[in-house]
Amino acid sequence: MVTNTPAAARPSLITLPPELLLPIVEHALPPPALRSFSQRSSILRELASVQSSVTAIAQSGLLAHVQLGPPERDARTTRLLAAEQGGKLSASKIKSVSLQSGAGASEEVVELVRRCTSVEEVWWGDATHEEDALFAALAELPNLKSLHLSECWFDLPSAPFAFNSLTHLTIAVGDPEGLNTDLLRPYHFPSLHSITISLYNWSEVEDLESAVSLLAPQLRTLSLLDEEGFQENWRMKEVLPKLSSLHCLELKDPAADLLQAISAIPSPLRTLRLDAQSAGKLLEVGILPACLEQLKSLALFNPSEMRTTSIEEWSARRGVRLESWDGGEGDHWVG
């Protein structure tokens, strides 16, 4: 039987105590990511206007994940700097930052980033040579775990630097001149165990395989994404035999030589993510590489482009979980 409960008697989300309301609101929001900052901000601003009791909750969410741009062109950054300088915002409360092109040319922004000692994740797109100081400031952050660089043209600092707490690095470039492979050195990333490299022109990047090989022994996850599908990433086959700690491998449109080189990986993989066509080619050989004997998950990109019946049967027979994969598309690329 349906009963009509008076509105005053119905439980309200807003009447919950803040310690319960905050995780509910955070769970309902899109996760902090490059492409979700604007959406998160809009939702939280609307929530703040609903009732004064949730304003503090919404403001907490707004200030935990922020976007920074050139103050002279970005009003939000101007307001944020004013709030921090006026004592209304503690930079130590900020958890993630999205840096827009030109942000690092502002000394105020650079100094604010230095004070963001709790930041764990940073997205930075279209950085120029005028923003080198911001890169140095990021290296100083004690709790930074993930750094996503897209089309960043800064020069590396002349002084020694190290991202001591960083565990994941994403590099995405369209123009090969935007990738300085001198960055990829173990002494710059002593704690790194995951790297994503997304390129449009693999064949024009010099010494990339040598640079990644230096990091290879410490990597547990490696993602190599060919964004044009020209399968020019064949040189990276030199890296695979050195991946002695790898658990997860992601390959988008790998060259035939790179696909075959999977058998040279010395460590047992738990997760393999491939475009569907490459997965079909790998499994049709009939002899399973030793590194795949303990595979737990196989994720496919664009499975609709081919019949995957044989892959499904293989996965069911071996008890491997079959999943879908977005091909690494999303937060690593700034268009």
List the helices and strands and how they pair.
Elements: H1 18-28, H2 37-48, H3 55-64, E1 65-68, H4 75-85, E2 96-99, H5 107-115, E3 121-125, H6 132-139, E4 146-150, E5 168-173, E6 194-199, H7 208-215, E7 221-226, E8 248-252, H8 256-260, E9 271-275, H9 276-284, E10 297-301, H10 309-318, E11 321-324
General description of the model:
This is F-box domain-containing protein. It is a single chain. With 335 residues, the chain is an alpha/beta fold. The protein has helices at 18-28, 37-48, 55-64, 75-85, 107-115, 132-139, 208-215, 256-260, 276-284, 309-318, and strands at residues 65-68, 96-99, 121-125, 146-150, 168-173, 194-199, 221-226, 248-252, 271-275, 297-301, 321-324. Strands 1-2-3-4-5-6-7-8-9-10-11 form an eleven-stranded parallel β-sheet. Strand 3 (121-125), helix 6 (132-139) and strand 4 (146-150) form a beta-alpha-beta unit. The model is unreliable at 331-335 (pLDDT under 50).
